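step 3/5: co-fold with zinc ion
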Amino acid sequence: MSLWKTDAAKRRAVRNVKGPEEIPKSRSNRKDKRRWCRGKPGIPHKPECVDYNAAKNRLSGDYAYNRDARLLVCTECGKELDRYCPFSYTVLERDGTRREVPPKPPPSWVVK
Ligand SMILES: [Zn+2]
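step 4/5: write tokens
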């Protein structure tokens, strides 16, 4: 082995760098759809506030379920980015009393 080759081997050992053939392939080829629209880096989602029932194709009107609920959906790829369900609910305290928890205030993206 020539001198420069042993030097290179030493340096590699010190840095603990794997050879090019040992570099593991990316375990995931899945696109990052959570962050980027259609998984394309740099392209943000185009969120729009929509009625829950309209988005979910549910009953509307008096029989509607989640009538006041809203979804934040991307108009480009259809991804549901957030949801808002303005429901109050009752919690049972340790002493046996029931306490009603009022619905949360709507987030800023709720416009309808
Ligand atoms: Zn999108």
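step 5/5: annotate
The mean pLDDT is 80.
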